[in-house]
Amino acid sequence: MDIIEKALQMAAKAHSKQQRKGSDIPYIVHPVAVGMILMKAGYDESFIAAGILHDTVEDTEISLNDIHREFGLEIARIVDGCSEPDKSLSWEERKTHTIEYLKDAPMEIRAVACADKLHNVRSIKNDYEQVGEAIWSKFNAGKEKQEWYYTQIVESLQYQNSFPLVRELEEAVRRLFNR
Questions:
Q1: Among 10, 105, 110, 140, which residue's beta carbon has the most beta carbons within 10 A?
Q2: Are 102 and 157 in contact (CB under 8 A)?
């Protein structure tokens, strides 16, 4: 079976009962969109599969060992790098960790994380156009903290060297926060 098809099947089953935060949209839309962003940007199958699987370990019963067994070390390493290590930490501690980690993370992790954040920002912008400032109430951290986080993510991803997806993310963040 094709690796992307296999990733789609695993992610669809793992996220089958989940919805996007504050909506009735099936969660699987997000990982599929991340994979599509990576595909459109010209990344290979392993990046695309990792993008589709990027939230499975963090948000479902799928373990990193499951990913490693089914998809190999490279994809497991990317998924692990895109997962928050300790959900018991506060929002700010988790986000600060992500910002610092991505500065020096391997390129494949940075690319998948960037596609993830790009889809999140695009989704927030779309929702903002529908409901305005009320969009921020669905997040644990409001508009100011979201702006801080996404601005810092862009800087972190540009730390080593920039790449086309980072420039797309930077523009999306600028548009979302009217910067």
A1: 110
A2: yes
98-108 pLDDT, tens digit each: 999 999 999 99
144 included as an active-site residue: no
Instruction: Compute the distance between CA of residue 176 and CA of residue 41 in angstroms, rounded to an integer.
Output: 21
Give the distance, in angstroms, between the CA of residue 79 and the centroid of all CA atoms in the same chain.
10
Domain segments of the chain: what residues? 3-176
The stretch 112-134 carries a mean pLDDT of 94
**Active-site residue identified among 5, 24, 44, 59:** 59
Backbone angles phi, psi at 19, to 5 degrees: -130, 160
Two tokens, residue 135: 């969009």
Place of tokens 């392993």: 46
Q: Which residue in 45, 58, 66, 147 is the catalytic one?
A: 58
CATH number for the 3-176 domain, one of 2.170.150.20, 1.10.10.60, 2.60.40.10, 1.10.3210.10? 1.10.3210.10
Is 59 among the catalytic positions? yes
Q: CA angle, corner 16, sides to 10 and 20, nearest 5?
A: 115
